[in-house]
Amino acid sequence: MKDRYLDFVNSPFGTRIARTLGLPKPDVLRRHRADQAEFGGMAAIGAGPSPGLFDTLVAVLSGIGITGVAHDSAPDWLPCAARHGAMSGRFEPRSNTGDTHPGDRVQALIFDATGITQSAELHSLYHFFHDAIRSVAKSGRIVVFGRAPSRLTDPHAATAQRALEGLTRSLGKEARGGITSNLLRVEDGAQIEGALRFFLSPRSAYVSGQVVHIGVGAAESGAPPGWSKPLDGKRALVTGAARGIGAAIAKVLAGRGAIVTGLDVEAARDALDQTMLSIEDLAPSNGAHAALIADIAAPEAPDEIVAALALSGGIDIVVHNAGITRDKTIARMSDDMWASVIDINLLAQERIDDALLAKNVLRDGGRIVAVSSISGIAGNRGQTNYATSKAGVIGRVESMASVLKARGITINAVAPGFIETHMTARMPLGVREAGRRLNSLGQGGLPVDVAETVAWLASPGSAGVTGNIVRVCGQSLIGA
Ligand code: NAD
Questions:
Q1: Tens-place pLDDT, residues 155-175
Q2: Residue 192 belongs to a domain with what CATH number?
Q3: Is residue 51 part of a domain?
Q4: Distance 322 CA to ligand 1 centre (A)
Q5: Is the beta carbon of 369 within 6 A of some atom in ligand 1?
Q6: What pTM, to 2 d.p., does this model score?
Q7: Distance in angstroms (rounded) separating the CA atoms of residues 353 and 344
């Protein structure tokens, strides 16, 4: 469904009206476009004491075509293309020759806080962001690297690292112009390039205020064969692929190189065929993309799915997207409304995964990505059944991550906020407008925003990302 307010306030006439009346003006987010460079420009890099990732950051940035500009907070001996000084609280990039470019905006602010072990050292973040925050371009990115407090034995270090979460989330709420802010907690030896690419790129347009843990992934994974088609040759199953978020996931995975089997119910056969045809046009596979008709809640579904996927030699990526809502307050909810939502949204995923894993149809090194919801984090009036099912999905991801590690399989969930689909178009107007606006970016997300996040989690470069719940919600006030 179209967001007419967003379109209006970004038209020349609407911009004038919004300014005159003092109306909020959410920015049109920069999303990935095949005809535009994904990366470029400059990123300002700051660092606390003993910044363990600094060299890696500079190397990754230069590899993807972003000029790293070191802030004064980074010690002099750290290598960087250029350095800058803070003047009048404003970031002013300066090249190695000393020329300043006062008007230049940076695409990203990146801070290496991995070496911070005392809360007093958090001052280095104040120094950096105070100087640099006003220099970030529209749809720019803030990425802070830290450590997982739960893995630290020193309480002072764990305290300081936990504090980073408050800073990062607040920066997301203060920033304007479609700027996002996220915290990546990395273990020693973790590969950060895949996550850094995602969080710096337009592909993460609607992901803000998130904390992601990056561990050390299975050895055979690491860097994908090519970053533009990281899923080249991988086989993926996407449930609920006929429309909405599922169709977008199928398209994005195929666009990134995967061979996709899209699954949906008989009633959605025509829509599924249309989706799969459009995918074949977008990413030709000589007919290897396939449509599979099944009701995931049917008792025979796991065996049918296993049989269909085994025919093509197994699968690398499973995306559990199919889901339904049957909303009513619990006193008015029928037994069937409760049971059908739990069955489709939660139990079916468990049964299908159990069957795929038992028969080794999901290959070692595979990826499972489940679609949860911010309702599963915060709960929602009239959605006891839905929120229970989506919280269950989160529980499943958290509990299965360590179980699947031995096979190099990762499992993560995306938790969408308000996404413009059939599901949200059915909401009453007031609820719909509240869902759209009550987030840091002031707008709803698009199915492609969820799809891009799924594609990142499904890629070989995310081998160390498991057990995470990544909200795709523009930093919604609900579920925060
Ligand atoms: P949608 O209703 O537009 O699409 C859901 C698809 O799943 C449909 O094609 C439907 O036919 C299919 N499906 C339903 N039951 C099925 C079954 N038993 N077997 C096979 N396929 C089945 O919904 P959407 O908005 O695209 O949502 C997709 C997922 O995202 C759902 O899990 C939903 O809970 C979740 N989600 C959506 C939003 C949002 O704002 N739209 C927010 C949070 C979470």
A1: 999 999 999 999 999 999 999
A2: 3.40.50.720
A3: yes
A4: 4
A5: no
A6: 0.94
A7: 13
